[in-house]
Design goal:
By secondary structure, the protein is α/β, with parallel strands linked by helices. The protein has twelve helices and twelve strands. Strand 5, helix 3 and strand 6 form a beta-alpha-beta unit. Helix 2 runs parallel beside helix 3, helix 6 packs parallel to helix 7 and helix 11 crosses helix 12.
């Protein structure tokens, strides 16, 4: 069943961690627990196989299994967005077809990440892709990982195709995001979503449609509450909840010494909270060892958690 969404898609759409038992073994039971946890927390959609979902570290076989199982477990309750980012146009299209067959609502694509494309070449890549996609497309800006930034003009050009329904920005560059919002102001049906949770509240206050926030894997209700407060223009409440978001960000995502710290910290916290069974991280990374795991537990202990739920 395909749970469609009304444009623009709005709210908190968590980028799901991919629960793993090995480099090519999906933990289906943990995935089910995670999805039920997110739905109970009031989220507005599910986004799989993004950066938080480790797509580029996973085999195509496992990516397809993740799509199939997510759609089966979700059973049409929420829109499912599937990331199809790849260096190969053919493989991106293949994943989009799997997503459509399984009942997903839309696909998401960041720029191809080996050859650094110029802006005209980037637009042409999507103009070649779009006629072959069976689902609507969200563009995904992730310059730290793919070396390419979508210019506002390029986004506007690609979005001339009605299949392009939204944009997710993970640059954490608010002036850039505002320039995209301004450029797309003639498209009220076009969804503008912020990736980094640290700036989602203020961006929604300024007109963004929502957030694709990794921390919602742990505490979905917190991020939904922050989104609702921002939509209501309740600045005082957004500020209050933002302090909890920043406590989570500054204590759980900073334990490691490398760029993998966010992913390892998030997965470790999810396992300690019982959301997923194991915090296995796909190669080239490994999960935290005991000293780091203790630091994550200490960070969780400083949060107001009762019976596994964050009190805010």
């Amino acid at each position: 069943m395909n749970k469609t969404f009304q444009s623009p898609l709005s709210g908190i759409i968590p980028p799901l961690v991919t629960p793993l038992l090995g480099n090519d073994t999906l933990d289906v039971a943990s995935l089910e627990n995670l999805i039920e946890h997110l739905i109970a927390g009031g989220v507005h959609g599910l986004f799989i196989l993004g950066t938080t979902g480790e797509e580029q570290s996973l085999s195509y076989r496992l990516r397809k299994e993740m799509i199939k199982e997510t759609c089966r477990i979700n059973a049409g309750r929420l829109p499912v967005l599937v990331c199809i980012t790849d260096t190969s146009l053919v493989e991106s299209i293949n994943l989009s077809k799997i997503a459509a067959e399984c009942g997903a609502s839309a696909v998401v694509s960041a720029a191809p990440y080996y050859f650094a494309t110029g802006q005209p070449e980037l637009a042409e890549f999507y103009e070649d892709m779009l006629p072959q996609l069976p689902l609507p497309l969200f563009l995904y800006n992730m310059p730290s990982h793919v070396k390419v930034n979508f210019s506002p003009d390029t986004i506007h050009r690609i979005a001339e195709n009605e299949k392009v329904v939204g944009f997710k920005d993970s640059s954490a560059n608010i002036p850039y995001f505002q320039s995209v919002m301004y450029k797309m102001k003639d498209r009220p049906d076009f969804s503008l979503l912020m990736g980094p949770e640290e700036v989602t509240g203020e961006c929604v206050l300024l007109g963004a449609n929502g957030g694709i926030n990794g921390g919602a894997n742990m505490f979905p209700a917190l991020y939904v509450a922050m989104y609702n407060a921002a939509v209501a223009q309740n600045v005082k409440e957004v500020w209050r909840l933002q302090q909890i978001v920043m406590q989570i960000s500054s204590s759980i995502y900073t334990v490691g010494q490398h760029g993998s710290s966010y992913l390892k910290g998030l997965k470790c916290a999810c396992s300690l909270l019982g959301v997923i069974k194991d915090d296995f991280v796909a190669a080239p990374f490994h999960k935290f060892n005991a000293p780091e795991r203790r630091k994550i537990q200490e960070a969780l202990d400083r949060l107001p958690i009762e019976n596994g739920r964050l009190i805010f």
